[in-house]
Design goal:
Helix content: 10-25%
Number of strands: 27
Structural class: alpha+beta
Radius of gyration: 21 Å
Length: about 475
């Protein structure tokens, strides 16, 4: 029988419920759920937060409430993995860019798109599902002159298997299905011949299914090395991802999840990195490798598949970085309290009060945001690949629309501009621009593609509505912002 044990079967799971039995809830429920995780992270040992829901939002990540909540969780040391959303096709079935949902548009989140392995195990044959939301992010805000400035953060960060993934199905003792999804889609329910009475499995598709695969990978990385910070985890996942042919950076990020490579790097790094970052005892460029250790081979054969790392990672919202120093030496942006997006650098730090004031026994009182005036962001030796991509052009296949495999090929050759002094914030100004993106533009290619998927996505949602995969929006109204689940 197929193995449905999951990506990290030994992990403990804390289920924070923000939806009702019909798969609906409120944005305030999602915010309360994230707050609960932050407050209970120590009591339950919570290291990873998976958020498989996405809201349609025109707000900038700086003000969007879900993004702010995720940013607080990351600042508190929790690695947050978010579904990119399933809005990659418009109503006419054409590719839709700029469709990343909230909080997937939050720069500190690990935003995951959906890949399709087409029923096989050949990784190089995988494609990005057409329904998977594409970047860049198009939320924005008005500047002091009243001009709307678009965030244009490069997303998603990577993709993972999210097409007909087999998982457990909730039933009662008699085997009666308790899932709305399964009740409405009986063709997705599988009863294994070796199952105990009442056991059922369920096939699901979507970025909400791809995200937990990455969360499981993060759990395994933190088992191998508990001292990794959330930004370092994200960098390792991207650096070891496998760039798929035929998909650009805005579709697949750095590529397909490679658990073997991610755990390999995590195991090669020293322990206690997070504690050293918090204590301020690491200087830019300090080695993170264990004594006598080197990086694992960037190309390995896994299950008969040749898997090569992309050697790409995103930072600063629009920078594409490379070079082994990126993961073997300390980069100041590995600090989870540091938020760096283009010229905007902020520090978000938790502050504490008297423990007896909190009935939970946790003295966390809130988060304070400050602006650093002098801050190194990378170390010398890191390679910048952003200039190799050129201005973003969908027709020309450049910039954010450059095939990830092409850029990964450059990285494998050691191409890129060495950042001799690192990227430094000086007097509030960063000069390096990274990818040049068209402001606020959604591009459609007019290409109608059919994948034979169970879930049909690409809905254009009204403001304030959250969808997790192909949920029905019938019960939601603008006056009652709803969270809709997998229906």
């Amino acid at each position: 029988t197929p193995d449905a044990s999951g990506a990290a079967p030994g992990a403990s799971i804390i289920d924070v419920r923000v939806l009702d039995g019909a798969g609906q809830g409120h944005i305030s429920d999602a915010l309360a759920g994230i707050d609960w995780v932050i407050l209970h992270r120590s009591a339950y040992g919570i290291k990873v937060l998976n958020i498989s829901l996405a809201a349609d939002s025109t707000e900038s990540y700086t003000t969007d409430p879900l993004c702010r909540a995720v940013r607080s969780a990351v600042s508190a040391g929790i690695t947050v993995v978010v579904a990119a959303g399933n809005y990659g096709l418009d109503a006419q079935g054409r590719k839709r860019y700029g469709s990343i949902g909230s909080p997937g548009n939050e720069p500190s989140a690990i935003t995951v798109g959906s890949a399709n392995l087409h029923g096989g195990t050949v990784r190089s044959a995988a494609t990005v599902n057409n329904f998977s939301s594409r970047g860049p992010t198009l939320g924005g805000s008005l500047d002091d002159a009243g001009v709307r400035q678009t965030d244009n953060v490069v997303k998603p960060d990577l993709v993972a298997s999210g097409n007909r993934v087999l998982g457990a199905l909730s039933t009662d003792e008699s085997g009666k299905v308790l899932s709305t999804i399964a009740a409405r889609n009986p063709q997705l329910v599988l009863t294994p011949s070796s199952a105990k009475t009442g056991a059922r499995w369920l096939y699901l598709s979507g970025t909400s299914i791809a995200a937990p695969a990455v969360s499981g990978a993060v759990a395994s990385m933190l088992q191998a090395n508990p001292g990794l910070t959330p930004p370092l985890v994200k960098t390792i996942l991207q650096y070891t991802a496998q760039a798929l042919p035929g998909a650009n950076l805005a579709e697949q990020g750095a590529g397909l999840l490679n658990v073997d490579g991610a755990i390999g790097i995590a195991s090669s790094l020293r322990g206690g990195i997070a504690s050293a970052v918090a204590a301020g005892t690491l200087a830019p460029g300090d080695s993170l490798l264990l004594p006598g250790r080197a990086l694992p081979a960037a190309t390995r054969t896994i299950g008969g598949n040749t898997v090569t790392w992309s050697r790409l990672a995103f930072a600063g919202g629009n920078q594409v970085l490379s070079g082994d120093k990126l993961v073997t030496a300390y980069q100041p942006f590995f600090d989870p309290q540091l938020s760096w997006v283009r010229q905007r650098v902020r520090r978000l730090a938790p502050y504490y009060g008297a423990a007896y004031l909190n009935p939970l026994g946790n003295d966390l009182r809130g988060f304070a945001e400050t602006t650093p005036t002098m801050q190194a962001l990378t170390s010398p030796g890191v390679l910048a690949l952003s200039k190799l991509t050129g201005p973003s052009s969908l027709i020309g296949g450049t910039g954010v629309f450059m095939p990830a495999a092409t850029l990964a090929g450059y990285a494998a050759l050691g191409a890129g501009i060495p950042i001799s002094g690192g990227i430094v914030l000086s007097s509030g100004l960063i000069l390096s621009e990274g990818l040049i993106l068209s402001e606020g533009l959604i591009l459609s290619e007019g290409l109608i593609l059919s994948e034979g998927l169970i879930l049909s996505e690409g809905l254009i949602l009204s403001e304030g509505l959250i969808l997790s995969e192909s949920g029905s929006t019938a019960a939601a109204t603008p006056a009652d912002p709803a969270v809709v689940g997998e229906n």
